[in-house]
Amino acid sequence: MKLFRRSLMAALTVAALASTGAAFAQDFKPRLIRFGYGLNEQSNQGRAAKVFAEAVEKASGGKMKVRAIGAAALGPDTQMQQALIGGAQEMMVGSTATLVGITAEMALWDTPFLFNNTREADAVLDGPVGQKVLDKLQEKGLVGLVYWENGFRNLTNSKRPVGKLEDLNGIKLRVMQNNVFLESFKTLGANAVPLPFSELFSAMETNTVDGQENPYNTILSSKFYEVQKYLSVTNHVYSPWVLLVSKKWWDGLSAAEKKVLQDAARLSRDFERKDTREEAGRALADLKAKGMQINELSPAESARMRDKLTKVNASIATQVGMDLWRDTQAELAKLRGQK
Ligand code: TK8
User: Fold this and answer.
1) pLDDT interval class at 24 (50, 70, 90)
2) For the chain, which domains are there?
3) What is the mean pLDDT of the chain?
4) Mean of the pLDDT values across residues 221-240?
5) What residues line ligand 1, using a CB cutoff of 6 Å?
6) CA 242 – ligand 1 centroid, Å
7) Which residues form the signal peptide (predicted)?
8) What confidence tens digit (pLDDT) does each residue in 290-327 have?
9) What is the 3-state secondary structure (H, E, C) of the chain?
10) pLDDT at 21
11) At residue 225, does pLDDT exceed 90?
């Protein structure tokens, strides 16, 4: 009996040691965060991803490691979103527009001419309306941390300068994969084709599509000037990017680890917006130097485009819910000092 007890004790000690060893090893194995994004490393998205990665590593004392993987190497936005929901990938940054199929409220940001400037965008996105939209992601298995700036979108194509609505007729235009973008550009008379961003360059190169719309920064960093001759300044919508975490993975983090990610996310947001705006300020001259032909819409034609696009507002309001729509309009009115 005594002997039995002694060997049992020995066995327990060995087991205890083994489990302490395992816990020890786990504590010192850094948490690996696969962070995917769609643009290349030299883009504003790539630069900010690097800032985020460094901030996480520093604040966690090396216990959390971000492996930033760009150029859609982990798949286009929609594929990464599913990987996050399933827990196969930890984080990503991507367009809010491609999230609409998962969280209908994201369609709010696709409202044409919603923001007049970046001050309005920052205030609404970082305020209660922006937070309400982020919160909606949770029930779908995603945690939204912050919005980055993709920017005001402008048209490019290989056919002709777009100076008025009618110039869009018959132009095969790639749009982001969502019904608001599809409806908006159909309304404007273009032949709108939804396509993932990762397929866009080669689609333009092979003339599968004639054009696309994106902020100056992206037209530059993705070298669209190599396959697009005309750039028409439309500023038709402001696109945010959103920093997403897999909720499945997030729920297993300690409060301290969550804070590291939240703080780094805010830091990366502030860096990203500043960097993006600086680059956008120079980009038009750079694109001209690369050989693009740039035209602005006259105020009258710009107004016609705006008018025409108000048609899609009703369906966006229905999609996101009337309360959210009204809250947004009220916040904008307050920002514009209209009361
Ligand atoms: C990059 C995309 C891109 C977006 C688009 O993955 O798809 O046109 O503007 O920034 O999210």
Assistant:
1) very low
2) 31-337 (3.40.190.170)
3) 93
4) 98
5) 38-39, 77, 94-95, 150, 176, 197, 214, 218, 239
6) 11
7) 1-25
8) 999 999 999 999 999 999 999 999 999 999 999 999 99
9) CHHHHHHHHHHHHHHHHHHHHHHHHHHHCCEEEEEECCCCCCCHHHHHHHHHHHHHHHHCCCCEEEEEECCCCCCCHHHHHHHHHHCCCCEEEEECHHHCCCCHHHHHHHCCCCCCCHHHHHHHHHCHHHHHHHHCCHHHCEEEEEEEEEEECEEEECCCCCCCHHHHCCCEEEECCCHHHHHHHHHCCCEEEECCHHHHHHHHHCCCCCEEEECHHHHHHCCHHHCCCEEEECCCCEEEEEEEEEHHHHCCCCHHHHHHHHHHHHHHHHHHHHHHHHHHHHHHHHHHHCCCEEEECCHHHHHHHHHHHHHHHHHHHHHHCHHHHHHHHHHHHHHCCCC
10) 40
11) yes
Residue indicated by tokens 């983090």: 253
